[in-house]
Amino acid sequence: MTQRGAEPSSSDVDAVYVFAVCGTRTPVGVEGLPGVPGGDAVGTLPFGELTAVVQTVRAADFTEEAWQARLSDRQQLERYARAHHHVVSAAAVAGPVVPLPLATLYHDEQRARSALAAETARFRAALERTADHAEWGVKVYSTGSGGADRPDPPSGPAVITGRPAERTSRPAPGAGLAYLERKRGLRAEREQRQDAAIRAAETVDAEFQKVAAAARRLRSHAPELAGDRRVQVLNATYLVAKDRTDELGRLARTLEESTGAQVELSGPWVPYSFVGEG
Amino acid sequence: MDRDIVPWDNPEPLTGPIGVPLVDLLDRVLATGVVVSGDLVIAIADVPLVRLSLHALLSSVSERIPAPWADGGPL
How many residue pairs from chains A and B have C-beta atoms closer than 8 A? Predict the structure, then answer.
């Protein structure tokens, strides 16, 4: 294939998509996977003592414009993200892998080989750091303190929410003041709830850090993303030694009881969040 | 109810793209891993591309990628 000079947008130009780098010479179980949409079957590309899991794709599917469109189309993005994850996970069955971010591409195998070979030391360090470990996600949701809570929509001017009886009756003397106090009380309650939720999140994080070899905080999901009305107060992820996996479920339950928050554990993940530096 | 634990319920560890919530997946596959500079879609590794389109679907991704609005709060 031509490289460089060729128009990157011409539709017949190929590119090499790299999913992950494996510590072994022969990662089993990845050859022939379908990979990302519109490409050839997944294969391997040895470099030095490591092996990359790669796929030949059409360069035209991976231009910046193509990604702009894809990133604003949830279904499209999901297809690519899941395809990527599927290949990375399959490679990880055979042995430790270093996943690369979605859409790392080279013009051809030669370019891929030399670029990856130049990073051998980083791959080795990452493989070493994550060997015999897996990543576990922990999300904490605030449940409020009492029974009478509802993650009320971020306090809008919610003054006239029904209660026609109350509205139509003549305001009693001092009703304005009572109303203000009620509002103030509600706000104080909400603040207390938020404080409690943040404390719960900190407690959960601290406890999981004791079990983990490394930890990272991720950005919390807005409720509408997860299609879920609960308020997420912690979205963290931990690198945990495989022989400590058993402790996690128990820890999550214990913390639910002691903090009153909901603690959700997910995993094991390929250590996506712990192969980069820092 | 997937309240307390969401095990992937898969005989083989570390597999199981089925059932993984998309937001959790995106937290991990976008801009994580060892970032090596590729030849194409440079901006993905450098994040601006992702960040630009964030408002369309997610406020997640990682803390290294501040969302375009303050606090990551709802729009």
Answer: 207
Given A105, A131, A157, the domain boundary residue is A131
Order the strands of the A133-142 sheet from edge to edge.
Answer: A214-217, A231-241, A133-142, A262-269, B5-7
Confidence of residue A277 (pLDDT cuts 50, 70, 90): low
Domain housing A41: 14-131
| CA atoms of A85 and A79, how far apart (whole Å) | 10
- A86 strand-pairing partners: none
Q: Which residues pair with A44 in a beta bridge?
A: A53
Cβ atoms within 10 Å, residue A109: 17
Number of domains in chain A: 2
List A residues 62-101 in contact with B (Cβ-Cβ < 8 A). Answer: 62-64, 67-68, 71-72, 74, 77-78, 81-82, 84-86, 88-90, 92-93, 98-101
Asked if the structure places residue A115 within a domain, the reply is yes
Same domain as A116, residue A142 = no
Q: Are residues A270 and A138 in the same domain?
A: yes
Q: Tell me: the pLDDT tens digits for A18-72?
A: 999 998 777 778 899 999 998 999 999 999 999 999 999 998 888 878 877 787 7
Q: Tens of pLDDT along A142-195?
A: 875 443 344 444 444 444 444 555 555 666 778 889 999 999 999 999 888 888
Last residue of a domain, one of A73, A105, A131: A131
Tell me the ipTM for this assembly.
Answer: 0.73
Tell me the torsion sign for CA atoms B30, A243, A139, B13: positive
